[in-house]
Amino acid sequence: MTEIVMNQAEIAAEIAARLREDVASRLREEVAAAVKAQSVGVATTPVAEGEGSFGDFLKCVATGDTQRLRAVYKSSKALDETTGASGGFLVPTQFEERIRAVGAPMLFDQLVAAGRGPLMLRTNAAELALPVLEQDQAPNVESSALVGGVRLIWREQSADVQESEPKFEQRIFRPHAADAYVAAATELITDAPQALEDTLVSLFGRAYAVLKARVMLRGTGVGQPRGIIGHPASISVTRATSSSTQAENDTSTILAMIQRLLPGSATAVWIAHPFWRSRLMATRLAETLLYTVNGQSLVYGDTLAGIPIAYSEHLPTVTSAGSLVLADLSYYAFVERAGFSVAFSEHVRFLKRQSVWLFGVRIDGAPLVNAPLILADGAGNNTVSPFVEIAAGT
């Protein structure tokens, strides 16, 4: 066995070399961890194993840390049925609520909060079948289209009971995919990760609220929900033109719209293009103004003929058809496929030094009536609807 003999100077040099190597190794590890954290826009402070934040969730998506996504956030891949392998990760419930809360001041969420919004449904399936009454047939004079033809029939003692069956149809809702593509500069991700997290939450939350209001009003029904404007169930009211002033004509038009609204629509709401406001404020019935100014809140806000009014930039211009709507949105169903999804790529815009976030939702919606309802007054052609819109004109 060979014995190695080292003097004091050599021992000191060996110890110093090993210390330098150990320090350098630790420094490399810390730098690598910091760069990795900055590249996905989150702080370098590690998150405890059992804790979580939206920023940490986004980091896990960006780095593909599926183990942590499942263990901490209970998030799984949001597969797309058409491809079988694509899709981002489902956003955890606590962060989804934070995103939704951003839309609270906006039209759609205000309508829901005020109890004047659509019927909100959620599903985990690719489609939702909803049985609804057929209400577009002429009713018996002793019944009503509102109850789908069901009526109580007078019967003499010991006489047979006559049939009176409701008519149902199956309404199929298939949530359509909509995505928000957000590119963020690498410098922003590195310099202000927390600000980016807050910005993404705010942008997506507001964009989703805008999307819901837009499609509820003007959705085409092709690859997206069907809106109420121009729907076969909506009644179009011709603008009055016989009076000498615009205010008088507008008053007559408003009264005509109210007349065609479905009776008993206690949750009805006016929705108007913003440029209608000054004209509506001039309407009056005799000496009483129809418009009451209380502010831009649907709970205690402005009213027109006693009905709350809201404004939307997504309606057509004032002279266009559908720029003023009177609607009972409880006759509109809005279906969400449960859960938002989020995906990340640092390669799509690599040459521009940008990373891309892709947020996704799946929604569908449509009126629950196919056509205006016929009144049981015996005339056979007097119709009303939960959706009344103004025709084109001046």
Written account of the structure:
- The protein is α+β, with helices and mostly antiparallel strands.
- The chain has a domain at 235-334 and 381-390: 2-Layer Sandwich (hypothetical protein PF0899 fold).
- It has nine helices and 19 strands.
- The chain has helices at residues 8-38, 54-63, 66-71, 93-101, 107-113, 186-191, 193-218, 246-260, 277-280, and strands spanning 89-90, 119-123, 128-133, 168-173, 176-185, 235-237, 269-272, 284-285, 288-289, 291-292, 303-304, 307-311, 324-327, 332-337, 341-349, 354-367, 373-374, 383-384, 387-390.
- The strands form five sheets. It has a seven-stranded mixed sheet with strand order 6-19-13-7-12-11-10, with helices on one face.
- The longest helix has 31 residues, at 8-38.
- The protein is globular and about 110 Å long.
- The termini are far apart.
- The model is unreliable at 30-50 and 79-86 (pLDDT under 50).
Brief synopsis:
The protein has 9 helices and 19 strands. With 394 residues, it is of the alpha+beta class.
Characteristic key phrases:
394 residues, alpha+beta, hypothetical protein PF0899 fold, seven-stranded mixed beta sheet, 9 helices, 29% helix, 23% strand
Describe how the helices and strands are arranged.
Layout (H helix, E strand, L loop, with lengths): L7 H31 L15 H10 L2 H6 L17 E2 L2 H9 L5 H7 L5 E5 L4 E6 L34 E6 L2 E10 H6 L1 H26 L16 E3 L8 H15 L8 E4 L4 H4 L3 E2 L2 E2 L1 E2 L10 E2 L2 E5 L12 E4 L4 E6 L3 E9 L4 E14 L5 E2 L8 E2 L2 E4 L4
Helix pairs in contact: 4-7
